[in-house]
# Entry
Amino acid sequence: MKRSVLAAVFFIAVGIIFGVALVTDFDGIPLGKAQTKEVKLGADRKPSNANVDLKAANDAFVAVGKEATPSVVYIVVTTKAKKNPHGDDFFRFFPDFKFKMPDEQQSQGSGSGVIVSKDGYILTNNHVVENADEHGIDVVLTDTRRFKAKLIGTDPLTDVAVIKIDADNLPVAMLGNSDDVQVGQWALAIGNPLGLNSTVTLGIISYIGRSIRIINDSYGVENFIQTDAAINPGNSGGALVNINGEVIGINTAIATTNARYQGYGFAIPINLAKSVATDLIKFGKVERGYIGVQISVVDETLAKANGLDKAEGVFVQDVVGDAAKEAGLKAGDIILSIDDHAVNQPNELQAYVATKHPGDKIKAVIWRDGKKIEKMITLKPRQDSNKLASNDENNGDDNSETSAGSKSITFDKLGFSVAKVSTKVMKDRDVKNGVIVSDLKQFGEASNRGLQVDDIILEVDRKPVSSTTDLQKIVKTKKPGDALLMRVKDASGTTRFVAVMIPKD
# Structure
């Protein structure tokens, strides 16, 4: 018992000593009493000029933030509750910062927008304001003023929308030239992610002309600027700006597995957004011109099959619209440039044409029969028929009628077999000649290039094929490393070209 008392007294004494130490300086002078010792913290030297370039960059970022942030607004949209149509897609429009109203009949979401005129026109994303109630769009400025906004127009094919508030002398964003954007340059994303108003993040441009197949329409125009500036839900419709404070893109989508930032964001190029916004303000809708072609990528094999020294341009799989037909374009042409702008991806061509209107004329340089020729194309409005200016990434349907019943020939190195087409199938498929693909080797050259069982091969190297012997003769003229260009028709009636390379082994 005495030992316990002594131990308790000891610990109390130690506590008192440490308590005193915690409220005194190292000389034992209680804090709050008169201090006689001078206290100096930090080094005596001044900053060197070694990082003058970094300081200049830092000052530039500060200036950009001050200049551009006031023109980016916070948008709150009240809409009827609905299921998220994008599910768990890897690429997605921002789900934005959403919460349900108490009655669970409506929901609210937030996004961003960019002021593009002093009298209140604001550029944003279609997916931010789609399905908004009649009076369900509210805009909050950086100075905290709040306005009801009117929906002026939307364009789902580019995910651009324009709204308007009743205000004057607003801070207007400077709009840059997205055609000048280069990979590696600095970029700042400004918006309202996760409800955090007026947030600025920094990164670089990591790719230009990206297509991520998020717009669920064959005429969707995807030519995104990719950046690693941190972008999160709520950034939708906000500004991607360059080091000069000029808006070069409208932030739109992210690549993610968890609906949050994982390193890659995508913005609509401002030149495209500005063109669409101008139409929406003028007409309430987009007056867009179309060429009328179904196009695909030109890779090394397709280039070789067409006599090109390198992979360039976009391949015309089919001509389906009046503008292309009247200009004399043909299936099998390769479009190298439009109005002296090189086009090497289908979305590059689509994005350029999307800035034009019906009646506008464009100059196309095409590759045909081993030479370049020019064609003037007068754009037409979109028709109700299908495939007017679509990006063909579809290899056809699998569910077709097999007609192989006669002797077939196998091309082992190419990995496919062909047979004679029955009279019934020729009539049903509306073909006058050809051979049908009766078998495919899994992961073989032909399979990897998109050929499918029941495709009917109509032409090879632009020569009609009427029998398996015809095809065999053409293949025998090729040597390893050469390419074959086959024109085929699938069971759905779609005609396309498939290029295969003769393996060197």
